[in-house]
Design a protein that fits this description.
Strand content of chain B: under 5%
Distance between the termini of chain B: 81 Å
Structural class of chain B: mainly alpha
Largest sheet of chain B: none
Number of strands of chain A: 7
Oligomer: heterodimer
Radius of gyration of chain A: 25 Å
Helix content of chain A: 55-70%
Number of helices of chain B: 3
Shape of chain B: elongated
Number of helices of chain A: 21
Order of helices and strands of chain A: HHHHHHHHHHHHHHEEHHHHHHEHEEEE
Largest interface: A-B, 19 and 20 residues
Number of domains of chain B: 1
Strand order of the largest sheet of chain A: 4-3-5-7-6
Strand content of chain A: 5-15%
Radius of gyration of chain B: 28 Å
Shape of chain A: globular
Order of helices and strands of chain B: HHH
């Protein structure tokens, strides 16, 4: 009885402890994504820029040495892409230097550990959000499981130091917004302003957080008894802290704040590169996406139970917002859009999701690599799912049975995570009829496993030439391998004539139906395919 | 006043959505067509097509009709004369 109580009282600590241990245990299994090398480069570039303002000569020399050591013919120079936020990359460059990490595999493992720790922290914040809103332990645990076990999010939480970091920051911001709804004081305001500044300087799209906070302040003012002076004080305090930290965390803005900020906004909606990508069996232009692009990607890569519950939750909230909107009167006791703090929190989530989701679709924003740029919507989707779970349990008589079924369905996500490991980032749900119609390994995670496979097949050969029938810069995967192994491999891109093997992972920046850039020559034979369920991750071709 | 502001906001959003779903889509379709025509893949296809046509033309006994040949001959002669007469 005593031990049972101990388990009950400490369940959440045990849960997070086990999750943490699993994460740390499997982190070494993941490959390297194609953006990580550039992000490391960008981190050192901006660290070097900041150190120019200091007298730390020893550190300066070391950072400059590491910066000059980064090279690669496919690697873009951060000088030409300065608009990326460096809230993650710069501290990582600093840590790498301070810890004196020399091995290239450890450069990236450090980043993977940090990414996982950030997402792990965000899962704690998400737990606090659910605890703040729902009070029911079963809903809280279900919500938490949905948040963590969505296979794409789970996989990316080990290496995607762009989108997962941003998702984590959005989650932390939502928590502090909820705290402000409960208690509007300067401490909570300071937290929200700092974290929204960090989110915004990580990704400019994070601007929706301070803007929606101010909009909600305006909506609250309409029916509140607060004086205009009080509201003004809040706005000035919040804005001052926000802008201070926003500029502080984004060195790109230091030289010309106004123009550089405008340029960043422009880049957000119109990326300065265009390419083709496989979507639904057709090669489409990244600049002109069909309206169905985001909904289809979300629908085919989200577990069915999450998708279903999210849609129900969203519809339930839509109905409530519609009823509140048509009942707005000039004089009212309650606020126009909510009847209490919980409804206000729900409305905040509903409002932001609706605005972002439909704006991205309608404004024809440039997107590529599935919907990874919108992974921050994941927190909103899981929140909707929790709303649906909460509302259905009120109406269902057999609550035990209801939760049991939900737990079983959610736990099936674990099976998918296990099955796809370490390629959860390429997960598709079972409702995709032909997975060949979509790009799976668009971030080149398979590169490390492919090279290890080739080495395993040729342990005694001193040099192996590898061609690449994909846009993936495969040479970056060598950085995750031991030097003596990496030295055996010579990546020669599309020089198929001199290749011993060819790597193909079904990703292309050109229309493969019209362009023969990645056509495998006839003197090569398919010798191996690595696939999960019916999804091909990569293929190996060998010269006859 | 409050209701007026809400109505104004809702109307503006509705107009934006309507515009994007009508004119926005037409403009997008137009841009897609232009981008397809000017894409490098399409240029390669056109080049290949020209090559193919030239090759099949070479195999024929006569590429042009008598009338076209006469017309082109006169045209080239005229240009030739004009070039020769330049000071």
């Amino acid at each position: 009885m005593k031990s049972n109580n101990f388990f009950k009282n400490n369940f959440i600590y045990i849960f997070f402890f086990i999750y943490f241990l699993i994460g740390i245990y499997i982190i070494g299994d993941y490959g390297i994504s194609i953006d990580e090398e550039f992000q490391r480069y960008s981190g050192f570039y901006w660290l070097n820029y900041i150190l120019e303002f200091t007298q730390l000569e020893v550190l300066k020399t070391e950072v400059l040495f590491r910066l000059n050591d980064i090279s690669g013919h496919t690697l873009p120079n951060p000088e030409n892409f300065p608009f990326y936020g460096v809230t993650f990359d710069l501290p990582m460059a600093f840590l790498e230097t301070i810890l004196d990490i020399k091995d290239s595999r450890n450069f990236f493992l450090l980043r993977h550990y940090a990414t996982f720790l950030i997402f792990f922290t965000s899962s704690i914040f998400f737990y606090l959000i659910l605890k703040n809103r729902f009070y029911n332990n079963k809903i809280i645990i279900l919500g938490l499981l949905l948040y963590i076990t969505s296979p794409r999010i789970f996989g990316d939480s080990f290496y995607n130091n762009k989108d997962i970091v941003f998702l984590s920051l959005v989650t932390i911001n939502v928590y502090f917004f909820f705290k402000i709804v409960d208690t509007l004081n300067f401490k909570n305001l300071a937290y929200l302003s700092i974290f929204s500044a960090i989110a915004c300087s990580t990704r400019i799209v994070g601007i929706f957080i301070p803007l929606s906070f101010l909009f909600f302040l305006f909506l609250s003012k309409v029916n509140s008894k607060k004086s205009l002076l009080e509201i003004l004080k809040i706005i000035i305090f919040f804005s001052f802290l926000f802008f201070f930290f926003f500029f502080f965390f984004w060195p790109y803005l230091w030289s010309d704040p106004f123009l550089n900020l405008i340029y960043s906004f422009k880049i957000f909606s119109e990326y300065p590169a265009n390419f083709k990508m496989l979507f639904n069996g057709q090669y489409i232009d990244s600049r002109f996406l069909p309206l169905s692009y985001v909904p289809v990607w979300i629908a085919i890569t989200t577990p069915f139970i999450t998708l279903l519950l999210s849609i129900f939750g969203y519809l339930l909230l839509s109905k409530r917002v519609f009823v509140r909107t048509v009942n707005i009167r000039e004089q009212k006791i309650h606020n126009d859009f909510w009847r209490g703090d919980n409804e206000k929190k729900d409305f905040f989530i509903f409002f932001n999701f609706t605005l972002i989701f439909f704006y991205i679709i309608l404004a024809n924003s440039d997107l590529y690599n599935g919907w990874r740029h919108l992974y921050f919507l994941h927190i909103f989707m899981i929140y909707f799912a929790c709303i649906a779970i909460y509302r259905f349990q009120i109406k269902i008589i057999s609550k035990k049975f209801y939760f049991l079924i939900l737990f079983v369905l959610v736990i099936s996500n674990f099976y998918k995570i296990y099955k796809y490991h370490p390629f959860q980032g390429s997960y598709f749900n079972n409702y995709v009829i032909n997975k060949k119609n979509f790009e799976a390994d668009y971030w080149g995670l398979a590169g490390v496993q492919f090279i290890s496979d080739i080495i395993g097949r040729n342990p005694n050969i001193s040099k192996i030439n590898i061609g690449v029938a994909s846009y993936i810069p495969l040479e970056r995967s060598l950085r995750m391998l031991k030097r003596n192994i990496a030295e055996k491999i010579n990546i020669i891109g599309q020089d198929y004539e001199n290749s011993d093997y060819i790597f193909n992972n079904n990703t292309s920046e050109v229309d493969k139906k019209k362009n023969n850039k990645y056509n495998i020559p006839k003197n090569f034979k398919l010798i191996s395919e690595f696939y999960i369920e019916d999804l091909i991750i990569y293929q190996i071709y060998k010269k006859n | 006043m409050k209701i007026f502001i809400y109505k104004l906001l809702i109307t503006l959003v509705a107009i934006y959505i309507l515009f994007q779903l009508t004119f926005g889509l037409i403009i997008k379709e137009f841009n897609i067509k232009i981008s397809e025509i000017t894409s490098s893949e399409n240029i390669v296809i056109i080049k290949e097509k020209i090559r193919k046509e030239i090759k099949s033309g070479i195999k024929k006994d006569q590429i042009m009709s008598q009338e076209d040949s006469r017309l082109l001959k006169e045209f080239f002669n005229k240009i030739k004369n004009e070039i020769n007469n330049v000071e």
